[in-house]
C-alpha cells in the first residue's frame, strides 16, 4: 500500500514543482544611486524683470536676459543654502536673492552681473568639486522705446491646432493727454489681424504694461480717439521667452457678438 501511495504522489509532486517554477518571481530592483540626483556646486542664476514697478502681489515677472530702463531686475541664485556674493555694477550683495532698479541713465549699457557661490561640496559624488563656483552674465538695459524684440510679424496657432495665422505687433508712443503724444512712453500697441479675419486695432490708446520681453493690457483711455476696429481687445499676457517662443493670451468682442472670444496661442517670430 505504501508503495502504491508513493507512485500516486510522485506525479502530483512533479506537477506542483513545475508550476511553482513558472510563477512570476518578484523583480529585484537595483538600489538607487544616491549620486543620480546630486550636482556640483553651481553659481548659475536667473534674471527676472517685473512688468510694473508696483506691488509684487499684482505684478507679473518674466525670465529675461535684458531689461528696460526704469525697471527693476531681480536676481536669484539656483543653488540653495550657500554663501553668495553678487557684484552688480559697483554694488555688492550677499543674499540668495537681490534686486536693483535701473533708472534712465543706464539705457544703452551692458552690465556684467557676477555671482560667486561657496558651499560644502558633495565629495562622495564629485571628489574634484572644491565647493566654489562663479559665473558672469551680461545684461543689456534698453531705452523704454526700444521695443524691437516684441514688434514684428509672428506666426501663431492654438494648442493642438495645425491652423496657424499671422499677427503683427507695433508699439508706438502713448498719449500723455487727449490728442498729445508722449515723447518717451512707447507702450501703445497696434495689433493687426487679431481676429484671424483681417481686423486691426490701430491708432487708439491701447496702452500696455510692459517690460523687455512681455506686455499685457494696462490703463485704457480714449485720448487717442475712438476706434471701432479694436473690438474691446484685452491682452491678458504676451511673453517672448528666452528661446524666442511667443505665448499670447487675449480676448475680444465684436459688435453683436454674444460673448467674448478668447484665444490662447503659441508661435514664433518671423521678422
Automatic annotation (TrEMBL):
Protein name per UniProt: Uncharacterized protein
PROSITE patterns, alphabetized: PROKAR_LIPOPROTEIN
Domain of life: Bacteria
The keyword Signal belongs to this UniProt entry's keyword annotation: yes
Annotated signal sequence range: 1-22
Keywords: Signal
